[in-house]
Input
Amino acid sequence: MTQTAHQAGQLSAAHDLPVAPEQLEDLAARYGTPLYVYELDSVDAAAESLSAALPRGTRLRYSLKANPHPAVVARLAARGLDPEISSSGELAAVQRAGIAAGRCLYTGPGKTRAELDLALRAGVRLFSVESAVDRDRLAAAAAAEHLGDVRCLIRVNAGGPTGGDGLRMSGMPSQFGVDVGILEPGHTLLRRFGPVHPVGLHFFASSNASGPDALLRQFTENLSAAAYAEDLGLPLRLLDLGGGFPAPFAVPGRTESLEPLREPLTASLDRAFPSWRDGSPRVDFESGRALTAGCGVLVTTVLDVKQARGHTYVVLDAGVETLGGMSGLGRLLAPGTVPIPLDAAADDVFAHVEAALVGPLCTPLDVHNRRVVLPVPRVGQLLAVPNVGAYGPTAGLLGFLSRPIAAEAVLDGGVVAGVRRLELTETELGR
Output
């Protein structure tokens, strides 16, 4: 790529940011770095785009694991997206956002009795159960609260690899869900058990699928498994087909339009469940990444630029405790972060260097990108990492090296609506 093309790419990428570079610089001056910035207008646009790509009459849930910030949760709830949660902490975020717990779907393969007690007392009445043990624990908790009507979805592990997917979560041996092959007429999970009665199925096959074709294959497989379970006698009033909707992470670019998915997926629904348009069953989808990724920017400061045996290292004040999460444990590849200099229009933007982008932590695993081409970086320069509204601070190694957690600023129409910093606190539990 020529230097002119590099410059054009940097400037174009800056224009794709949900917040103007000048405002990001101002926020960094006020609140320091590393700093996450979320623009709620971008959340609105993403929700509108994804909803338009799904069959009319279906519903979309918001998966808090992507970004549990109460302002984001509240914005999506106001648009009619009910929360999907999988911890007491996410339930607390829903409550801080002013949303009734009764709107939640509570999921996860390892719910404890204490978590279930808390959820039921808060008003959660819909759970995804992943085994008979999970269902029985829910039933015991509901009975202890003298509740007679708690609903559950059976999470099903169905189908095989559909190709082109990101992180596979079913279609192979997995801790998630019940293998569809073990279900048979009269299976305990298909029947009411005490105060808990099954009302449908929950699927989630993969994360960050490659596009509309992969999603269509995934959802069509799920529909076949749902029809099979209904034939076995499962009451099918609610069908959660899951998600996996893609979005870029920590690199410039925009989320791909999924509009080509709508028509063929509608046809698949019509074939599998002709009465679904009348609400039998009600059909839900869920998303976190595609709804929030584009709303977020991480602003970070260049702490050092150093040479080592012919290689250039750019050291940032944001490490894998801030962005990239389990890559810092060597469990995942480095995220391949491509930042945007906030002064990309400077005269020296034509000069570029190939460098490794690293963080400040005392581990060789603190790497954002092992080989990235950047305008020559300078100590003190601000860089913006785009598309990190999903799986940002709460997906990092928050306690590693006991460093301060990045602050989070929320903008609504360009106006600062709030700034916060999460903190790890110590609670004495006694001896």
User: Anything to note?
Assistant: DSSP finds ten helices and 20 strands in the chain. The first strand starts at residue 35 and ends at 39.
